[in-house]
Please model this.
Amino acid sequence: MQVPRWVFIPAAVGAAFIVLPLVAMASRVDWNSFFSLISSDSSRTALLLSLRTSAVSTVLCVLLGVPMALVLARTTFRGQSLLRSLVLLPLVLPPVVGGIALLYTFGRKGLLGETVDVLGLQIAFSTTAVVIAQTFVALPFMVVSLEGALRTAGERYEVVAATLGARPTTVLRRVTLPVVLPGLAAGAVLSFSRALGEFGATITFAGSLEGVTRTLPLEIYLQREVDPDAAVALSLVLVVVAVLVIGLVRGTRSSAL
Model:
């Protein structure tokens, strides 16, 4: 298909709209002290906490998202459209609203608060709360990515395997998952990226305790008031991570073609 020439004008404006703020931010970085700014004790602690909790939340997204995507892509039942809408709701829901919902679910006075207290667990304003908040906002990315891959792949190979006598679990393990592995990998990378950048739900549900719940986005927010240079440097770190994530997703999808 030949693209009309006029299309390049709004396309260039859109690209500039995205790129110029990044260039402006990079121009404000104090490169002489860049590494000292991003390697301070608080920054390093926040980064390590973000990486650790994002990794755990990504594992949870895989464990929960794969079955959800399979149910949505391979079954048909009444209310399926409504269920899909609810599953994807965190994609459009303001993160702060998600954090409030989690607080009133797992908080001390929440829906499950008394049950949690009986078990001797403290979820709200803990590292566990960070993982829950990240999983809540990142899970739809796994479901969307994998459900799309499942629908694109179709069911012909699964039908052949079932015809040959393979049990459903064997079909899932030997046929379905290997076929959609690129979609699964892309979903995991996107989930990790979304968890790494999560802010609103985290600060609402988990708070901002250094070494416990203060992830890198929260550290950037706090540093913005006291040390703008550190905030810009840490923001650039997140941008670099995001670019790497996008590269991994594109590489994963390209390998599937």
